[in-house]
Amino acid sequence: MLEINTGDTAWLLISAALVLMMTPALAFFYGGMVRAKGVLNMMMMSFAAMGVVGVLWVLFGYSMAFGDSWDGLVGNPFQFAGLTGLMSPDAAVATVPALAFVGFQAAFAIIAVALVSGAIAERATFTGWVVFAALWATLVYFPAAHWVFAFDGLGAEHGGWIANNLKAIDFAGGTAIHINAGVAGLALALVLGQRHGFGRTPMRPHNMTLVMIGAGLLWFGWFGFNAGSALGANGVAAVAWINTLVAPAAAMLAWLVVERYRDGHPTSLGAASGIVAGLVAITPAAGSVSPLGAVAIGALASVACSYAVGLKYRYGYDDSLDVVGVHLVGGLIGTLAIGLFADPASPAKVAGLFYGGGVDQLWRQAVGAFAVLIYSGVISFGLGKAIQATIGFRAAVTAEHSGIDLGEHSEVGYDLTPVQHSAYRVRQTLYIGADESVDASRK
After folding, report:
1. Cβ-based burial of 396 (10 A; exposed 0-12, middle 13-18, buried ≥19)
2. Model-wide pTM > 0.90
3. Alpha-carbon span 324 to 411, nearest angstrom
4. Fewer CB atoms inside 10 A, N or C side of the chain?
């Protein structure tokens, strides 16, 4: 029986709460980036992911991700179904109660699904999204999480093939989360097609204040995302924490420099995007590089992503909120950069190419990254096509023009219209009149 460490347990529970907070933070970030007529729908897509994935995780998701491996491809979905047996005092993962680890990984699964929604903003039916979220979590995320996160002995006798056989490094989800969600977003963008007016009608963010608040909260929550992945209050967590500070800091500055020289002015959207690009890139590498390596990775990913977000105009795919340009590209760079910048003095104790390790780790990183990319891309495209052909996935043209908030939810994010204001005044007058009648009867 493993001995439970109360300090490690406290840190993991706090980290789990920080990671869960990242999904509402993402709702702020994405919500501010869409037009005003789509802000509620955009935020609802993130909140729906919390509901759908939260339930599936308890029913069978955790078991598929961390149950005993079936040939390294997926965990036994029945082993921990309903979290059976995990409430026992003897149930532990590393030095924490098993349920603390279950909760931490649940928050990972939720935000992985929510990330995809940004690529199809303002044009997907809400029902289609909910169905996709459930199917994608089951068929794509849970198996990919098993490949990457299920180390031998971590709640199961045998783990996933990327972690145990390939020995690629992914500290907190560059492959299972960011490459996975990024390529799924690309697949759905291709299935649903462009928004009406894409490339011709301005589709600027409607509320940069929300975007900046969301970016700040994402950065804050990401300390739980990365440092919490150490599964303990220890030196590994400290290294990951510092790397999570400096990589997005360098990435934000790099994006602003690119904007200054390319466009003539740095922007708040560029600062927020740079922060997220740096966070994405350092996620897989947080425990395997030095702080200087983290600075390099953050800056490199930021420059690449700042140019990648413009590819949608060249190639005609409508990645509404740059999920492909930031999460797919940033995740690939961060994952591959481990093969270059891995420092043998880091907790991972692996040497990359720049530290005399040759290309051994680099090819392992490449195989892991592109395996997830291809698997997720194919399955995601198939799911999108199937939903579109059955219940429909693309919103009606009228709903898109009037606003996806009204079309899908029959409500608006900003109740400012004169008609609605007049209706409110009428109701207020009726209430006042009723109150006066009551007072008169009492007299």
Report:
1. middle
2. yes
3. 29
4. C
Residue pointed to by tokens 């609802």: 44
pLDDT in tens, 251-301: 999 999 999 999 999 999 999 999 999 999 999 999 999 999 999 999 999
